[in-house]
Structure formats: structure tokens, C-alpha cells
Amino acid sequence: MKAAFKISLFALLLIGMNECYQRTAYPMYVAAHADQLLQVEKVKNCDIVYTSASSNFSPDEWNESKKKMSQFMAEAYPDMLVEAFNIPASHAGTHLQLLRRIPAESQVQTVVCAVNLRSMGADWINSELETALNQQAVMYADRPPLLNRLLVSLNAYDHKSVEERHLLRDEAWNNTPLPDYAPEANVSAWCAAPKWGDWRDPKRQLADQFIKQYAFVVDENNPRVQDFDQIAILAQRRGWNLVFSILPENVQLADTLVGKLLTRMMRENANWLEQRYKAMGVLVVNQLEALPSGHFVDKDFPTEHYDEAGRKHIAMNNAMALRKFHPTKYRNPTWSTNMNFSHSP
Amino acid sequence: MVFNSLTFLLFFPSVALVYFVLPHRWRWVLLLLASYAFYGAWKVEYLGLIMMSTLVDYSVSRFLDQSQDELKRKLALGASIVTNLGLLFFFKYANWFVDDVLVATSLVPEGWAYQWHQHWQVLLPVGISFYTFQTLSYTIDVYFRKVKSESNLLKFGLYVSFFPQLVAGPIERFSRLHHQLFERHPWDWQRVRAGLQIMLFGFFIKMCVADNLAPIVDQVFAAPEQASSEQLFWGMFSFGLQIYSDFHGYSLIAIGTARVLGIRLIDNFNSPYFSTSIKDFWSRWHISLSTWFRDYVYIPLGGNQHRVWKWSLNILIVFAVSGLWHGANWTFVIWGCLHGLAYLVESFTGFRHMRFIGSKWLQWLMTMSVVFIAWVFFRAPTASVAANYLQRMSDGVDGSLSIDWDPMIISFVGLFLLSDVVMRHGRFNEWCDQRHFLVRWSAYAFLIYAIAGFAGTVNHPFIYFQF
Fold this sequence. Notes:
The complex is a heterodimer.
Chain A lengths: L1 H22 L1 H9 L2 H8 L4 E5 L16 H7 L6 E5 L5 H9 L9 E6 L6 H4 L4 H11 L4 H9 L8 H14 L11 H6 L9 H13 L8 H16 L2 E6 L4 H7 L2 H20 L3 E4 L21 H15 L23
Parallel strand pairs in A: 1-2, 1-3, 3-4, 4-5
Helix pairs in contact in A: 4-15, 5-12, 7-8, 13-14
Chain B lengths: L5 H16 L2 H17 L3 H23 L3 H34 L6 H10 L8 H16 L9 H9 L12 H9 L6 H34 L6 H32 L17 H5 L4 H12 L9 H19 L3 H20 L9 H21 L3 H13 L11 H16 L5 H6 L3 H18 L13
Helix pairs in contact in B: 1-2, 2-7, 3-4, 3-6, 3-7, 4-5, 4-6, 9-10, 9-17, 9-19, 10-15, 10-16, 12-13, 13-14, 14-15, 15-16
């Protein structure tokens, strides 16, 4: 009897603590450490959700417009509400967690996911920023907030150290086989090939990075592919229209610096993704080669940061693809990009 | 596996449950398996190392027990010491020795050091310093016939690897711990409750005090050249509190965990920041290590049975070696030597015997000044960084760092310091026993709420794991 009383008292205490935490410290913690969770509140009342990493932003300071890609896209659908989850260095795994938090009774009709080819490579999979992202993701889970907060303190997430992640990344570069047509057996060997010249040459360093970022073969065991698979299943269950927008990569520069073998690998990976998700009923907008080199903002590392015209172009491609689901809502925006759109529904 | 992890919070209740369900004769086997699982959770390869250490010391101790030939016994003891310290040296000090001794003194070229690092990517196995010292003390005790050797290899294996104290102590002597591991410990709610209370308090000071101070300390020590003198002072003060709460918290969780299973571990701390001399400090700080150094280094060196200069040298050697035990860096040696010098100054000036109004306060203030200044060397990456840190701290300069002093952290620190006054050895269980039900449960509620809602979020393993 005494034990039952104590157990009940303990359970009551825990419930009371969770309530107290939820009303007091939790909102402050979320605002400081997991602010994308606040975005769920906005997103649940919108029509179209756009998910991406920093490719959605406008990092180039010299462009007049600081608008995000999702905002340009929204201008083609003025009668629809478009909101975005965009977290720097995030990937499909992070986006999946946030999409799961959208309540079943939300108004969301369509989800557009930016598919970043680079996020499927060993460098990004084992990025040192993963630990921070994983920590935030604990708070995204649909559990009592006090329990989520405790799990963060208990490091109940993949919290490998930077050294451990680098070790895994290096192992992948050393041991993961490349396709038969690749000049070397693995990424490390390819990078170390003498024909690249002096290490101190910036061009050689950039070529090295291109190989490291794009020389891999994507397959169903890739963790990001598994995340996209889950997003496809979630969308099906929730009745959302789903668009995977394969982002442009700097294929032109990859060709110049490394050559056709690398660009072939990039194309094959993008095509594999396109075929896989088309077969799963997803509308895929393959924009791998949609932008020439000049639209990529970062010159010393391969990224998906685009200038204003580049962002507009990608947004327009997505907007035109969305006409399949919302044909009557589309309006021509007031701006143009002077580029040919690669996708039409 | 670390204590402040979900894995441990699932692992320990499962082990405890099976432990109390199993018949007595099988319990030690469970503890051995659990200990290896606990250790192997870090890296399975580490198990090979601890097993090797166990096997060597088991064989040597059996020989020492049975042999009457003093020369052979000495050789066997030497072999054990060389093996244990050799492993410790290779894994802990080899890289440092190559870089900071061989290359620094030009005994080998830099290219050789590069080749060494390429060939031997040595990672420090967790807890190696602790279990090496524990097994060393056992072999030496067997050599001096203070204890009988254990005839069962697996039972000896449990003494070496008992999981609550395996990776960061307390370093237990064979005569204290071994017999407890095989005694009957029936279910006793009072004892289990006491263990859980100690664990709860340990989790609080590790997760709410140490882990919340860690980012502040990291920030100041990462860029001391950007901090103001005031910030450097608080950074030094915070590190002193961080390392105490971190290690004391760990020790309490270890003690509480063992207590639940019926085993009493040695108290490792006794309010060290209330010490009024360095001698007093070392009788209150990391007690299991300081007594180990006293018994196995200081006394064999001759203790105080020598002339003043030899005794002084012994003191300095003990403190320097104790510093080096903490890590492969000159900063730890300097830290140890600073304590050693302060110890000698105290002894020669009669500092400990000062008696006048306010003398205790003066002794406390001066002791803490030495202890906290020495912590700067302990925490800084190099001796020159530490020296610049202290120089800047005394210069009264402004800085550009922005440090977020959350009132919640300050109140946790205040509570921790208060608890050090109220509870000897951090015995939260004894404090609870004297309180009314409502007060006790309010304390539980507060600690659980603080841990769940306000513990530090930066992934900081226990500081002493690296030693």
C-alpha cells in the first residue's frame, strides 16, 4: 500500500513537472536551441512546405534581393501560403523529423523537398555539424518536452566526436569502391593521383574537394536515400503531394577541374534518384545541370549557394512543376531569369 | 558507457534486477559480464587490454604467493610493474614523449616523429590509468604478503573490472573491495534507497553544475586573449568548480551504484574547497589516488625518514608524478610541482600552525589561491597559454568576450557549494534520513526537475575519463 502510494506520488510529480516545464522554460529553450520547432506552428497552416538546407538562403551580399528560393516560388502561387524549413547543414533526416511534427489536421497539401546530391556523400554524412543537428532533432520528437530535454542532456542521440566522424569519413573515402570506369579504386586514391599537381595550387585543392564531394555511388543503403524513402511514405500516408527537387550542382566546374568521369558519376547518381522516386510516385524535378558555373556563389568549395538569378531559376522550375498539383493557382511572377526553364509538367 | 547516458540508465536497472533475482553463487559472474559489457561499450578492442592486464597480474600474483625465492619474486614483481606501466606509457605517454621530449630535445628528427604518428595512431583507452593503478597496488600488496592472491582468474577479473569504479575510480585496494564482491548482499530497501539517493545527487552535480559550467570554461580558455581580467578570474574559478563537481559527481554515482548492489566504495572527496592547507587539500581531494601515491610512491621513496633535502625531493617527486599521472603534458607536471612547492613552503614556514584571530580564514584564502591558480595550468593546453592567462588576469585588462551567466547556473553552483557545507562527503542519503517525508520528497522533486529540465546540453564526458 505504502509502495503503491509512493509510486503514484512519483508519477504525479513527473506529470506535474512536465506541465510546469512546458509552460515555463520549454519555450525559451526551443527558441534558443531548436527554433525550427516554432516553424512547425507556422507550417501547419500553410498550403506548400519547402524543406532545404542553406541552399534556400541568399548568402550573396551583392544581390539586390535577399529573398529565399521558397519566397520566389511563393510569388508564382500568390493565393497559396508557402512556408519553409531551412536549417543550415541539414539534410533529409532532419527534414523528416520536422515533417512528422506537422499535425494530421494541418492544411498542408504539397511538400517540396530540396534534394542535395552532396548530402549523400561521405563528407556530409559524417559532417562534424551532425552532432548539433542530431541534438536539435531530439527536441523535434513527439514526446513530453521534459523527457526530450532530459534525453538531450543524456546525449541520447548520435553524438560522435569530430575525430570519430573524421575517421568514419576517411574510412569511407579509403574503402568505398567507385564504379569500374573511375580512374582509381576509391576517393583517396583518386585525390592522391600525381596528375593533379602541387597541393598548394588552389585549383588542385578545389579539384580535390569536387572528387571528395561527388565521387560516390548512391544506393538504397545510403542514409539520406532512406530518409527520402521515409518522407515519401509519410507523404503517402498524409495525402500530401510530394516533389523532390534535385538541386543544381556545379557540373561545369567539376568537368573543367576533374573531368568527364566525375560528371558522369554525378549524372548517374541524379538519374538513379530520379528513377527511384518517380517509381514511388514522387514528382521529381532533376535540375542537376540547370545552372552554369557563374551562378554558384562560393568559388573555393563546391556548395549549393546560388546567386539571385540562380535561385529564381530553380524556384521557377519548381513552381512550374507544381502546376501539376495546383494548375489553377499558378500565376506568372513579375520577374524573369532570362534562362530557359528545364522542367514543365 | 558513461553514467550520464540513456544507455546506462537502462543498463544499470537491468543489471540490478537480474542481480537480485539470481542466486548468490551466480551474482559475481553477472557482475563480471556486466563490467565487460560496460567497458566494451566504448570499444570492444579495449577489452583485450584489460584482460591482458588481468592475466599478467593474476599469473604474477599466484607466483608471488607460492614462491619462496626472493630473487624470482622480485623479478616477477618487476615484470608486472614493467608490463602495467609499459602499457600505460605506450597508450598514454608515447605521443607526448615523442613530441615533447624526443623531438624537443632533438634526439630524433621531426620526420621520425611524423612517421611514428602515421604508424601508431594511439588512442588512449578509457580508464587505463585507474585500473592499472588498482592492479599494481594488488601485485605489490601480494609481494609484501599483505594480501593473499586470488586463485580464481575470473574472480580476480571482477576485482579489476568492477564497472562502477572501473573507468574513473575510486581506486580500490584489494583488501577493501575484493571480499565485498563475493559476500551475500540480500535485497535491502534501505540500502538500495541510500544508493539511489547518492546517485541522484551525483547526477545533479555532474549534469546541472559541471555540465552547465563547461561551456563558460571552454569559452574563456579557448580565447583567453579576448577575455577581460575579471572574466579570466571567473573562468579560473568556474573551472575549479567544474572539475570538482564533475569528478565528485562521477564518484558519487559510482559509490551509489555500488551501494545499490551492496558494495561500499571509498569516499573520494571531503569538501576539498574548505581546506586550510595544501596538505589538508590532498587529504580531501581524490582521496583514493592521494593515498595510493602515499602508500606506493612516497613511503617506498623513504617517506619522512630522511634528511630534510631528501624528504623535500620525495615530496616534489610524488607531486610531479601525480601531476603526470593526470595527463601527458608538461602543464600537468607544473600543476603537480606547484602543489608540491606549496606543500614544502607550508611545512617550512609553519603556515599550518598559525594561530591568531582570522588565521583560519587567511590559511583558507591562501590555500585556495594556490589551488585555483594551479588549476589554470591543469586546464590550459600549454604552459605558455597558462602563464599568459595568469599574466592577463593580473593586469586588469578589458576584453571582448561575451559570457552568458544564466542565473539558473549561478543558483545551481550556490546550491552545490551549500551542500558541501551541509553534507560531509556529499552524503545526500544521510541528509535525507534526517528530514521529514515532505522535505525529502521536495528535494527529490527539485533534483529530478533540475536534471531533466536544466542539465547542461553540451556533450561533455567526465573530465577524468581522459586520465
